[in-house]
Records
---
Amino acid sequence: MAFSETQICNRALSILGVSEIISLNQETPEARACKAVYETVRDMALSEFTWGFASSYKRLNKLTEEPLVEWENAYSFPNDALKIQRIYSESCRSQGFPFSVVAGNIIYTDVDDAVAKVTMRIVDSGLFPPHFIDLFSARLAIELAGTLQNISNRIEKANLFYQQSQQVAELTEGTQGKRRKERIPFVDARRGCVDSETSFYCGETESW
């Protein structure tokens, strides 16, 4: 079942035992508080775990500027990404490579043809799975408890819901059907990688 932004906010407000809202544009203290923090808390929740629904692969754009002395290459940070999970080479390899993100918008790495696995900024609440909505609404409740008047004493309840939703998220995301070794989908298709029940390989010589 898809949830709207208003419904997610109302889940948070219900944890705190305060009045629900009709929309985020409503002229009530609850609606104004939700609207003020919704996007920030959403991005924080997305960044907290390696959510499968928010993960994607991006070919990185190399920068012409000279990288830092300890790195070989510099890339721009993808505009629609929240964080870099791993850096790969576009060659058919399974391992990740070291990298560093500087000033929030430059990625340094020794990889010459870098591809990043990233966490995307997902703004369509209809794409959120139930366990993410639980964690998001609980985190939103914590933020609202410190913003709305006369409910700061309910932050303990919000924290409890948050801890419970964290445990569910860790269990759910940790038991998703994961491949034995992670691959880059568009690289596989181009280089003829084969997926069998026991192994992954590219061409005739590269093993996974």
Note: Helices lie at 5-16, 29-48, 130-145, 155-174, 185-191.
---
Amino acid sequence: MTKTRMVFNCQKCGYQSPKWLGRCPDCGEWGSLVEEQEVLPRREGERDWVFEETTPKTVDQIEPDKEERIKTRISEFDRVLGGGVVRGSVILVGGDPGIGKSTLLLQVLNQLGSDKFKVLYISGEESVSQTKVRAERINVSSPHLYILTENNLERIIKIIRELKPKVVVIDSIQTIYSLDLQSAPGSISQVRDASGKIIFLSKATGFSTFLIGHVTKEGAIAGPRVLEHMVDTVLYFEGDRGHPYRILRAVKNRFGSTNEIGVFEMKDDGLDEVLSPSELFLAERPLDEPGSVVVPSLEGSRPILIEVQALVSPTSFGMPRRMAMGVDSNRLTLLVAVLERKQGIKLYNQDIYLNVAGGLKISEPAVDLGIIGAVASSLLYKPVVAETVMFGEVGLAGEIRGISQSETRVKESEKLGFKRCILPRNNEKRFQGDTKLKLLGVSTIEEVLKLLF
């Protein structure tokens, strides 16, 4: 028989304790420890699924296996995964409720089914008829796509062994439960046990698995943090319900880059991939408006032109507000301090609001120069010339530092019709490509403001 024991699990971080505690020692959450039954590891020889027995080999004796990737024919999705779905990989997909996770993966399975791959979609939240209604709305009709409504882990494993699909989607992992445990579905023990068994089965038999995960109010995937370490790839589906655009971002990928993003547009008949995100994000850009600057940002290997907007207005409070959407608010505070100290621009009595249009989140330092330009433009109420792009990192001494892949950024800017580019002088000196853009190298904030105004 399976051996079990009772432990207290933190429902937020997965911390385990042999006795109840009012506050979790790990994450500091109050009242989060719940008593659950835990399955003890079995003795050797009692496992249901194990990898083939192997012996240690020296590194020069190992023959590398060629990565076998399955193309989904959705180029934005394949880009984020690193070229396609790797055989036997386990991919965790998280995102806010209603953001489009189920819709995206149904479309992926439909494309794979069109290539005559046998695929299985397991729903723990919707009935078969409800899933069929969704499939008809987004034109999913592959005869090789199987739909199953099931929450029991043991039955799911049995069906997977009998059907032998190429790709499996489980929507969502928090709804799956094992009869070996007495805790409720969605608890730490159930999520850990169900995920572990599915991952072992996927690795042993070679089918690829997508696990859809709920997210907490903080935006992290619900369940134990160890779940993200167990899987091969973690994808986050981001977006604002007020915008039709969705961003698929990899935060972990054992088989590809974690810098790539995929851009999709939500429509009535499902998600459409956006092959030219720069044109999309700049389509509604106001021309000759103070506080608007275009910055060529780099997401993985793809350059994307974004609009940075700033609004500076006198504060009516004792403490001025600093609010940023799409960039780190601490970065905004730092750059405002540099403007005040190095250029003598008075911002201590001004509210500053910064926004990256389109709902994108930018973390690279190349956007610093765009923030400086947008804030100064709004404060002076003087627009930046509409055909200008700018990028560069700003240091605490007011210097403009060089950034990587400037040729790629300039090429994308030229393709969209911009005429001049303000960039770090170091990048201008090392620029090797041919371009029709007028390159203006700068080394200090003072030089930037003179060029702009």
Note: The chain has three domains: 1-40, 69-275, 280-452.
